[in-house]
């Protein structure tokens, strides 16, 4: 009963957050282009199922299309180093690495690392939590029950909204 009530409350919170995010995006449109130069929208749809790991191939492939082949190493490093443990919300779907650590592990330049992280932030694939800590959008990759998925999505949206509102000020 408690989980059902929390699920309903989470659904309401996600609905509120999605309205707020859409309002922010109306005022700050972000246009991304695929490798052919065509604009596209990066999906941010919450889809939940029971006890699963998910990666939305369409979103992942579009993401790969906006970054060059040498930069894919950085994305793969990030996805391979995400903490998917989701019982502690402060670490759920996060990765921690400085630019220098990513440079050392991928062999890419610092400039390339900065460019990729900016592109990932601009297309809502990651949000900066603090310092060198980032949270991966749970719609891109995550694990857990539907209740855990909701919790992670709410946390991600909260951080995304906070970052977007801080950029406005």
What does the secondary structure layout of this molecule look like, with pairings?
Blueprint: H1 2-27, E1 32-33, E2 39-40, E3 52-55, H2 57-66, H3 69-80, E4 94-96, H4 99-106, H5 110-122, E5 126-130, E6 133-136, E7 141-144, H6 146-168
Antiparallel strand pairs: 1-2, 3-7, 4-6, 5-6
Helix pairs in contact: 1-6
Question: Key terms for this structure?
Answer:
Arc Repressor Mutant, subunit A, 54% helix
How is this structure best described in words?
By secondary structure, the chain is an alpha+beta fold. It has a single domain (2-168), classed as Arc Repressor Mutant, subunit A (Orthogonal Bundle). Helices cover 54% and strands 14% of the residues. The protein is built from 6 helices and 7 strands, in the order H-E-E-E-H-H-E-H-H-E-E-E-H. It has helices at 2-27, 57-66, 69-80, 99-106, 110-122, 146-168; strands spanning 32-33, 39-40, 52-55, 94-96, 126-130, 133-136, 141-144. The protein has a 3-stranded antiparallel beta sheet. The protein has a two-stranded antiparallel ribbon with strand order 1-2. Strands 3-7 form a two-stranded antiparallel sheet. A hairpin with a 2-residue loop joins strand 5 (126-130) and strand 6 (133-136). The chain is globular. The model is unreliable at 42-53 (pLDDT under 50).
